[in-house]
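re: the backbone from monday

yeah here it is again, tokenized this time
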């Protein structure tokens, strides 16, 4: 009786186990409306474990507390933080915005932390 129970438990475990894989973000550019009525075209990067959004020319953006997509800066701990500069398409940027971006690196991504847990292998967490 015990061997049959082990076989059934094993089969049940195999049948209910799913393979979880990270799906990549859709990189298709999407036009997004800002709260002030302007539009900006944004592109998603990454997967469900690590993801971020950029303008079409590669500057990382985050949504601020007012609902605007603004340029992001990277903090010392690897997290992304909102700046006060609202994002625009490259052709719609003011001279001040261009000056601000001249020192800003492109493609900032949040830091990914991989932690090893006994019995679980590598566990991926993100900091942001």
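seq for it, each position gets an aa:
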């Amino acid at each position: 009786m015990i061997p049959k129970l082990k076989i059934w438990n094993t089969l049940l475990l195999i049948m209910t186990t799913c393979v979880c894989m990270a799906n990549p973000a859709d990189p298709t550019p999407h036009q997004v409306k800002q709260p002030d009525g302007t539009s900006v075209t944004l592109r998603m990067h990454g997967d469900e474990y690590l993801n971020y959004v950029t303008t079409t020319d590669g500057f990382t953006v985050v949504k601020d507390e007012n609902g605007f997509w603004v340029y992001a800066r990277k903090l010392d701990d690897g997290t992304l933080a909102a700046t006060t500069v609202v994002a625009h398409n490259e052709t719609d940027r003011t001279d001040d915005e261009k000056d601000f971006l001249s020192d800003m690196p492109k493609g900032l991504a949040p830091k990914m932390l991989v932690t090893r847990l006994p019995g679980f292998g590598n566990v991926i967490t993100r900091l942001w």
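The mean pLDDT is 83. DSSP finds two helices and eight strands in the chain.
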